[in-house]
Every structure is written in structure tokens, then in C-alpha cells.
């Protein structure tokens, strides 16, 4: 198999090229001519995610993730909900990490429980807490890098434990992307992503991804087909295009995050910086072990000041936009307490370290010096 950058650029391209087009075209058609001898179920139809645009995208993504199969979805939440619905039923148990993306958290603790799935929790940062699984546990679910404190679980210990108990492992690897971490290489059965973020990387579509072995992905596909959670044709084209530069973008975002995190650590107005490339981060060694020392493009920091001051910083930057999301080419800044974690009870949020004053930065690919200058001018005003 070719190297990662080559797979990103060329993987999935149709041969021969369609009409000679170097960039595969948009297949903006809901249905396709039935081929002689094929029955109705073999037909290409947009909701079944089997148009030529979907097929190329699935091939590129399975090459990049190192999985047998891949399936794109209408959003990250479509990937997550279809995966969990396809594998869990009434009476089954789900063992979920205790700090998850808000949408996932709402689905797990609300809808899944309402439908009779028993939800149990574990602390991803403390694999010793995994002992005998609660009876009926069928699926374990965790995230590769937590938002916004960038905690990294010990993946090997988790997957070894789950395998020894016959539990299916699912991981949301959105914050890591396949550039930093390929979950199946570390024993996970299924990975899910919000491709709205780094995979597409340009902040202009919603998309999701499920990858794993063919049997598992087919199980999800069946459920997704019925839910109608397919990715539309134009978004397929944009995601395919975005993926071509994933490696370059992630490398630059990681450099920017590390550079900004280091610079902030030395500023008198800053109390603490959370990025796993900093030696003081509790998961520094896990970041070295699993992600080649690259901790992703997101980090967070706490200022020595009030909530109002934190809010002022988020709304005063000139380059960084005060907006949620991550993984795009432009840098975004938010206060998680008022964005990603607004729906989490304050007590739980603060106990997890997500204070009102915490600020999150999702790095883009701009010049580091300009990003430093942007934060310097707003932090400088804190002094005055
Ligand atoms: C880690 C993670 N997983 C899943 C999602 C949901 O993705 P989407 O908005 O594409 O549905 C998000 C969105 O922010 C996320 O950050």
C-alpha cells in the first residue's frame, strides 16, 4: 500500500478517469440505470450510499483509516447514532466513557436509555476502573482525544480488556483524525468521526464516517439506509476534495496548537494550558505512545481572571472567529461553558475541569506568528 499522503490524494480515484477528468466529478443523480442482470437490490440509489461518488469516497477512506470498509453519513451524529442503534437493542448494555461530546451524551443518556439500553460509565483516564463488566454489556464507547481538556485514554488497555470480555469497541476519533491515530491498528472494532471537522477541513459541510471491518460496517449501513442518513452528492464531492489535503492540514494545525500552547504557558495572565504535547499534561506519555507526540489542533487554557474577561478574549480576537467546531483551515476560539458544554450541568462540567473561564482554541493553518499576535493583543488588554 502506498504512503498516507499518496492514499489521501489518489486513493479511490476511478480508473480509467471519467471523461479524462483529473478530479472525479460530482454524481448529482439520485438514481442510476439498472445494469443488465442486476436485480432491484443491486441498484445504485443515493439513499443507499452506493453511487459512484460514495464508492470512491469509501475506498479512499478505508485506505486512509486502514480498515476493510468505510461508510460516509450525513453528519457525525448520524454516524454515531446509526452505529449504536445498529449494535444495541433492548436489554443490552453500553459501557460509555464519562466525558463525551454533548450530542453523543444526550443520545446515550436520553434516547438509548428510553429505548431500554442500559448505560453504564467508566473513566477513560483510569483503566484500572474497568473490572467485571456489568451483565449484558455489549458495546464499549469512548473518544480518542477529549474535548476540551485533551485527555487521551490508554487505548491498548481498554481494547484488551473489552476483547477479553467479548465486548464490541467503538471510538469517536474525530479530534485525532487518521493522521494521528488509526483505531483499528490498536484493536478497536469500529471508529466513528464527525467528518464535518478535520476530515473535510473547510467548515463548509456536515458529514460523518463509520469505518471498521466489512461485517460491522454493513450492519451500520443497513440501519443508516433505513434512517435515511446518507451523505448528499455535493457533500461527497467536497469531502473527497478536502481529504486530499488532510495530512498537510493536520500537521500544520498540530504545529500551531503546540506553538500557541507553549507561548500561552509563558504568559502571566494564563493559569493553565491543556494540550497533550506539553510535558505537564497528564496524558503526555500516552500522546507520545499513540499519536507520535502530536496532540491534535485543539487545546484549551484558563486565564487568571473572570468569566467576563474570558468572554471578552473570545470575542475580541481579530483573526480567530468566536465559533464552535474545529478542524477547519481557520482558527476558532470559544468558551466551552457557553458552547460545547452549555447543556452539561454546571456541577458535572466543573468537576470534569470545564470551568466557566476555560477557553478553547481550535487551530487552523494560518501562520503561527499571526495567531500569537492575535492572542497577544487581547491578553495585553487584560493588563491595562
Ligand atoms: C467529538 C465529536 N463527535 C461528534 C460530533 C458531532 O458531529 P456533527 O456535528 O458532524 O454531527 C462532534 C461535533 O462537534 C464532535 O466534536
Protein model, in words:
- The chain has 2 domains: 4-243, 3-Layer(aba) Sandwich (Aspartate Aminotransferase, domain 2), CATH 3.40.640.10; 246-383, Aspartate Aminotransferase, domain 1 (Alpha-Beta Complex), CATH 3.90.1150.
- It is α/β, with parallel strands linked by helices.
- Strand 2, helix 4 (102-114) and strand 3 (118-122) form a beta-alpha-beta unit.
- It has 13 helices and 12 strands.
- It has a 7-stranded mixed sheet with strand order 1-7-6-5-4-2-3, with helices on both faces. It has a 5-stranded mixed sheet with strand order 8-9-12-11-10.
- The site of pyridoxal-5'-phosphate (PLP) has 14 residues, from helix 3.
List keywords for this structure.
384 residues; alpha/beta; Aspartate Aminotransferase, domain 1; seven-stranded mixed β-sheet; 13 helices; 38% helix
By helix and strand content, what is the structural category?
alpha/beta
**Separation of termini?**
57 Å
Question: What string, H for helix and E for strand, traces the elements in order?
Answer: HHEHEHEEHEHEEHHHEHEHEEHEH
- For this structure, the CATH topology of the largest domain is Aspartate Aminotransferase, domain 2
The backbone outline, from C-alpha atoms, is globular
CATH architecture of the largest domain: 3-Layer(aba) Sandwich
- Count of extended strands: 12
Sheet with the most strands: spatial strand order: 1-7-6-5-4-2-3
Counted by DSSP, the helix tally is 13
- Using the CA coordinates, give the radius of gyration: 21 Å
Strand content: 15-25%
Which ligands, by name, code or SMILES, are bound?
Answer: pyridoxal-5'-phosphate
Query: Main sheet, how many strands, which sense, barrel?
Result: 7 strands, mixed
Amino acid at each position: 500500500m502506498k504512503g498516507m499522503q499518496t492514499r489521501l490524494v489518489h486513493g479511490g480515484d476511478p480508473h480509467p478517469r471519467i471523461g479524462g477528468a483529473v478530479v472525479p466529478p460530482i454524481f448529482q443523480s439520485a438514481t442510476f440505470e439498472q445494469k443488465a442482470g442486476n436485480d432491484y437490490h443491486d441498484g445504485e440509489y443515493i439513499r443507499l450510499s452506493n453511487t459512484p461518488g460514495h464508492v470512491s469516497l469509501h475506498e479512499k477512506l478505508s485506505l486512509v483509516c486502514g480498515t476493510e470498509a468505510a461508510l460516509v453519513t450525513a453528519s457525525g451524529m448520524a454516524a454515531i447514532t446509526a452505529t449504536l442503534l445498529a449494535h444495541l437493542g433492548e436489554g443490552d448494555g453500553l459501557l460509555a466513557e464519562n466525558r463525551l461530546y454533548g450530542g453523543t451524551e444526550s443520545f446515550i443518556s436520553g434516547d438509548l436509555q428510553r429505548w431500554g439500553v442500559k448505560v453504564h460509565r467508566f473513566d477513560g483516564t483510569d483503566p484500572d476502573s474497568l473490572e467485571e463488566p456489568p451483565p449484558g454489556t455489549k458495546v464499549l464507547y469512548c473518544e480518542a482525544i477529549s474535548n476540551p481538556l485533551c485527555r487521551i485514554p490508554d487505548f491498548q488497555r481498554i481494547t484488551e480488556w473489552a476483547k477479553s470480555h467479548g465486548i464490541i469497541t467503538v471510538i469517536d476519533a474525530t479530534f485525532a483524525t487518521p493522521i494521528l491515530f488509526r483505531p483499528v491498528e490498536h484493536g478497536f472494532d469500529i471508529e466513528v468521526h464527525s467528518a464535518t471537522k478535520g476530515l473535510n477541513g473547510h467548515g463548509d459541510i456536515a458529514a460523518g464516517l463509520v469505518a471498521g471491518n466489512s461485517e460491522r460496517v454493513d450492519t451500520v449501513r443497513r440501519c443508516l439506509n433505513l434512517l435515511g442518513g446518507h451523505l448528499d452528492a455535493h457533500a461527497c464531492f467536497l469531502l473527497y476534495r478536502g481529504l486530499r489535503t488532510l495530512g498537510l492540514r493536520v500537521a500544520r494545525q498540530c504545529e500551531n496548537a503546540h506553538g500557541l500552547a507553549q507561548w500561552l504557558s509563558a504568559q502571566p495572565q494564563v493559569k493553565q494550558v491543556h494540550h497533550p504535547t506539553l510535558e505537564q499534561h497528564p496524558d503526555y506519555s500516552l500522546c507520545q505512545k499513540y499519536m507520535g507526540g502530536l496532540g491534535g489542533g485543539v487545546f484549551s487554557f484558563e486565564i487568571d481572571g473572570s468569566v467576563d474577561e474570558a468572554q471578552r478574549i473570545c470575542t475580541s480576537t481579530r483573526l480567530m472567529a468566536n465559533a464552535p467546531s474545529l478542524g477547519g483551515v481557520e482558527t476558532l476560539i470559544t468558551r466551552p461553558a457557553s458552547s460545547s458544554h452549555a447543556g452539561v450541568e454546571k456541577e458535572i462540567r466543573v468537576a470534569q475541569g470545564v470551568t466557566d473561564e476555560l477557553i478553547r482554541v481550535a487551530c487552523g493553518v494560518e501562520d503561527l506568528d499571526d495567531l500569537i499576535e492575535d492572542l497577544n493583543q487581547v491578553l495585553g488588554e487584560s493588563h491595562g
